[in-house]
Write a structure and sequence with these properties.
alpha+beta, 13 strands, disordered N terminus, disordered C terminus
C-alpha cells in the first residue's frame, strides 16, 4: 500500500530533549558515592555514564502538549528496548485531547510485529483503507521484516543505540549553561535528587537516584505549551522475548494491497476483505 500514510512516530530526538542537561556533561571521572556530597554536575555525570552504558531500558515518554487536538501526533511511547534492536511495548497517538489510537510493537531480530487498534487504523491510514484494515486484521498482528517499507519507521523506534548516541552528542541547541541541585525527594518510591537546568526556551529537570549507582529515573522538559515527561526503568533488564504465533499474525503484504480509496464492505469476510 504505497499511499499508506505512515503514522508520525515519536522520534528519538523527542526523548533526547528531556535529557538535554546530560548532553554537555563530559562523563569522565567515576564520582559515585553519597549524593549529598556530589555537585549537580557530578550527579549528571554519573547519570549520563549509567544511561550510555545501559544494555537495555524501559522508556515511558509522555507528550502532554497543551496545543490544539492532533490525532497524528504521538502522545505516549511505552517501550522496553535494547542495544540489539529488540523491543516490546506500545505507542499511543493523539495530543490535545484527540484520540489517535494505540499500536502494540514487538521487534525481535530482523522481524517486527505491530497490532494497531481500530482507532489507530481509522485515524492513521487514509481513506477507507483504515476501516478496511481494521475489519481485515481484526486484532491480529501485522508481521514482516523490520526493514519493510511499511514497518521500518516503527522498527527505528526500537533503536536504543541511536538514543544513546544522541544523548552522548547532544542537541544542536546545546545544553544548559548551569545545573542546579535540588532537595532530595521521591519518584515512584525511589529516593532521588532533582538536577535542573534552563536553555533559552526550555526548562529541564533530571531526577537522579540518590544512592550509587546514580541513574536517571525521570526527566521533565517544558517548552512553551509542550510538557514532556520521560521515565526510565529496568536498566539492563532483558527485553521480553515472546513473539506472536502465526495464528495471531498476518503478513505485511496484505497491508500493501490496501488502497486509500477502498470502500469498506458492511459485512466482509476476513479472508475476502483484501485481495
Amino acid at each position: 500500500m504505497s499511499r499508506h500514510r505512515k503514522a508520525a512516530l515519536l522520534p528519538v530526538s523527542a526523548a533526547v530533549a528531556c535529557v538535554t542537561a546530560l548532553a554537555g556533561v563530559p562523563a569522565l571521572a567515576d564520582d559515585g558515592g553519597d549524593a549529598s556530597k556530589l555537585s549537580a554536575q557530578q550527579l549528571a555525570d554519573d547519570a549520563k555514564k549509567e544511561l550510555l552504558g545501559a544494555k537495555s531500558l524501559h522508556v515511558l515518554l509522555k507528550n502532554n502538549s497543551a496545543g490544539p487536538p492532533d490525532a497524528q501526533s504521538p502522545a505516549v511511547l511505552d517501550l522496553a528496548l535494547d542495544q540489539d534492536g529488540n523491543c516490546a511495548g506500545s505507542l499511543t497517538m493523539g495530543t490535545g485531547g484527540a484520540e489517535g489510537g494505540t499500536v502494540e510493537l514487538i521487534k525481535r531480530g530482523g522481524e517486527l510485529w505491530m497490532k494497531p487498534d481500530t482507532t489507530f487504523w481509522k485515524t492513521q491510514v487514509t481513506g477507507g483503507a483504515g476501516e478496511l484494515a481494521a475489519q481485515y486484521f481484526n486484532g491480529r498482528y501485522v508481521h514482516g521484516s523490520a526493514n519493510d517499507e511499511l514497518l521500518k519507521t516503527f522498527g527505528d523506534t526500537c533503536d536504543l543505540n541511536a538514543f544513546q548516541a544522541q544523548v552522548d552528542s547532544g542537541p544542536s541547541g546545546g545544553p544548559p549553561a548551569k545545573l542546579t541541585k535540588g532537595k532530595e525527594t521521591k519518584v515512584d518510591g525511589t529516593d532521588v535528587v532533582p538536577v535542573s537546568g534552563r536553555t533559552d526556551d526550555s526548562q529541564v529537570v533530571l531526577f537522579i537516584t540518590a544512592k550509587d549507582p546514580h541513574r536517571l529515573v525521570r526527566a521533565t522538559e517544558k517548552t512553551g505549551d509542550l510538557r514532556t515527561t520521560m521515565t526510565l526503568t529496568d536498566y539492563n533488564r532483558p527485553v521480553p522475548s515472546a513473539t506472536p504465533s502465526k495464528d495471531e499474525s498476518v503478513d505485511v503484504s496484505k497491508l500493501q494491497n490496501l488502497s486509500p480509496k477502498a470502500t469498506p464492505p458492511q459485512a466482509a469476510a476476513p479472508d475476502r476483505a483484501v485481495r
